[in-house]
Structures are given as structure tokens and as C-alpha cells.
Design brief:
Radius of gyration: 25 Å
Distance between the termini: 34 Å
Number of domains: 3
Largest sheet: 5 strands, mixed
Mean pLDDT: 90
Helix content: 40-55%
Oligomer: single chain
Strand content: 5-15%
Order of helices and strands: EEEHEHEHHHHHHHEEHHH
Low-confidence stretches: none
Number of strands: 7
Length: about 350
């Protein structure tokens, strides 16, 4: 759609820099407002802008509240996907120029809008990402404890695995040669136990929400039929994407995750580089973890679930068979383990997309 007036907004924690460009008159208006959406709405309604008009701002830490408020007031607003914006080449950067540049990009049709979730959808995303943050903190805490054992040349040999009941009993009773080391190690282990307790509480809350929302559980059931995807990953897929039909194909979903190679091509040559790693990093990390399940031998067992249509269960079984064969073929070719894992995650994105959009 062609807009007669485009309004670029450079959002910050306490203020918004606004620049409006009227294509009919060529006039440009700029102002600095607080972060209160009501003040922005009042400023827009007081101006004599040529209709139709549209506001836009970059997706970032300020969230989607501004977009939802503007839309509720009848003002169209786009949240621009930052990774899809054209690369800037100017050497001067400030808030006013950023707002003006966004307004010009909107007029030129060079912006791609991000999905604006509802308040309920966004709250579920917050819970999903909280679980990811705590799980990441737990991994770091365990690494710090093991690094401390390494630096003090302390060996644990009671069991083959760490983080068992036997290990925690040993950690509670083991005395180092220096009292300070004993104090340090017990505090590191205590941090692990606290994070494990927090993680259990978060996962219990996720399961409570799933059990209380049949529609959410029904969407998740499709994904849990795929090998390696459990309730937590399925919950994140539903919350972060919600509507898979907004993607044109599986490749577009993989691009949203950031699991597609970058490209630098010219003339008759096509050169692919590293992963773009743009878009949703939370889902990218989860799907790479799912791809790890295919690096170990497993039996494909078709689970009979009454809440999932037969056609979807068959598709999920084909997905598991295909990814298992692909992983074996890549390994036989001598492809590096990390590249194999990413290739599996990349193809998994397409299977997830088609399973999500399949009619029941």
C-alpha cells in the first residue's frame, strides 16, 4: 500500500524521536516526545497530515505496546524487522536522522513488518524465554563448578555422571585442602541447586498453562509427535510463532529462525557463506538442541495419540525417518559434526512448518 504520509519513530526508554514526511506537500515535521503513546497520538491528530498515513518503528526492547496502542486509536503502525532493513551507508547517525530514515524507507516500500502479538501471546513468549534464560544460567553454573574442580585438580569418581544425588552428597561432604576452596565450591553447587529449583517451578507453570488451555495443547500435540520435540520446545514454537501461515513456505520459516546461509553472489557466481543467525535466536537454539537428538541412535516408534490426526502422525514419522537417514548420509560423507547438526536443524524447520499448516 502506498502511504501519503509516513511517520518514522526512533523509540527509546524515556523518549521518542518522531519524523513525519508528507509526500503530497513535501513537508517534513519532526518532534521529540515522551514514551507515552497518548502524547504521540495527540501530536498526530493535531497535525494536518495527508491521508492515509502510517507509523513505523524498529523492533527492539521497547516491545509492541506502542503499536497496539496506535492501532487501537485507529492509526496504522508497523513494527519493522530490523534484520530485514536495507544497510545504511551514511556516516552520520542520530535519533532524528534515524526517524527520518525510517520514514523514507516506509515510503519506498523497503520495510518488512514483524508480527505484532497480542498481550496474551506476548506474555506466553515471556514465560518461554524465561525458561530459556534459567536453563542457560544453569548450564553456565554447572560449567563453573566443573571448571573449579579442574583448576583445583579434584577428581570425582564415585559415578560416571555429574549432577546426580550421589554427586551432591559428595559435594556437600568433600573437604578441600584450603577452607576457602570448600566454601567456594559449596556455594557454586548451591547456585546449581537453586537454579534447578527455579527451572522446575517454571516448567511446572508451563505445564499448568498447557493443561488449562485445550487450544494450546492441541497445537502443541502436532509438534510433540516429532522425535526430539518435547512439551517445552513445542510450547515455545507455538508461543513464539503462533500462526505459521504467515510464512509462505518452510524456507521462509527457516529464514525467520536464522538457519539459512548468507549469500554473496555476483554475475554467474553464487557464493554461500555462514548462517545469517538473524531473527528469533531463542527458537534457533531450541531447534539446534532438537537436532542433537538425531546424532544418537534411536528407534522410531509411532505413538498413537487420539488428539492428533493420523495424517499428521504419519507425517511426523516420515520426518523422523528422513532426518535420521540424512544425518547418517552426511556423517558417511565426512561432514563436520556441527555442520551436520545445523543441516538437520535447517531441514527440521521445513518439516515443522508443513506439519503446522497441514489441515486436520
Amino acid at each position: 500500500m502506498r502511504y501519503c504520509t509516513s511517520i518514522g519513530i526512533d523509540t527509546h526508554a524515556k523518549k521518542n524521536e518522531v519524523c513525519a514526511l508528507d509526500t503530497q506537500t513535501g513537508e517534513m515535521s519532526s518532534t521529540t516526545l515522551s514514551d507515552d503513546p497518548a502524547q504521540l497520538i495527540t501530536w498526530i491528530t493535531q497535525q494536518s497530515f495527508t491521508q492515509p498515513l502510517c507509523c513505523c518503528y524498529e523492533a527492539g526492547p521497547t516491545g509492541f505496546n506502542l503499536a497496539r496502542t496506535l492501532k487501537a486509536a485507529g492509526i496504522e503502525c508497523l513494527v519493522v524487522a530490523t534484520s530485514k532493513l536495507p544497510q545504511r551507508i551514511d556516516r552520520q547517525k542520530n535519533d532524528r536522522l534515524d526517524a527520518e530514515w525510517l520514514a523514507r524507507m516506509l515510503i519506498a516500500g523497503s520495510v518488512r513488518s514483524a508480527h505484532i502479538p497480542s498481550i496474551e501471546e506476548e506474555s506466553l513468549c515471556h514465560l518461554s524465554r524465561l525458561r530459556g534464560e534459567v536453563a542457560s544460567d544453569l548450564r553456565r553454573a554447572k560449567q563453573r563448578a566443573r571448571s573449579f574442580l579442574l583448576v583445583t585438580r579434584t577428581s570425582y569418581t564415585l559415578t560416571k555422571k555429574y549432577w546426580t544425588k550421589t554427586f551432591y552428597q559428595w559435594a556437600d561432604s568433600h573437604e578441600f585442602s584450603c577452607p576457602a576452596d570448600s566454601f567456594t565450591f559449596r556455594h557454586k553447587v548451591s547456585a546449581i541447586l537453586r537454579l534447578q529449583e527455579r527451572l522446575s517451578q517454571i516448567e511446572a507453570e508451563i505445564m499448568r498453562i498447557i493443561n488449562s488451555d485445550p487450544a494450546l495443547a492441541s497445537k502443541m500435540a502436532r509438534f510433540t509427535c516429532i522425535h526430539g520435540i518435547g512439551d517445552v520446545t513445542a510450547f515455545s514454537l507455538v508461543c513464539e510463532v503462533y500462526d505459521f501461515k504467515r510464512f509462505s513456505c518452510g524456507s521462509a520459516f527457516a529464514s525467520f529462525i536464522g538457519l539459512v546461509p548468507s549469500e554473496n553472489s555476483s554475475g554467474q557466481k553464487t557464493a554461500h557463506g555462514k548462517l545469517t543467525k538473524t531473527g528469533n535466536s531463542h527458537l534457533r537454539r531450541l531447534l539446534v538442541e532438537v537436532a542433537n537428538h538425531y546424532s544418537r541412535p534411536f528407534k522410531i516408534i509411532k505413538e498413537e495419540r487420539a488428539d492428533v490426526p493420523e495424517i499428521i502422525r504419519v507425517k511426523a514419522e516420515k520426518c523422523s525417518v528422513r532426518l535420521k537417514k540424512r544425518r547418517f548420509a552426511l556423517k558417511e560423507r565426512g561432514v563436520m559434526a556441527n555442520k551436520v547438526k545445523i543441516a538437520i536443524a535447517r531441514e527440521l524447520c521445513e518439516w515443522i512448518y508443513y506439519i503446522a499448516v497441514m489441515p486436520a
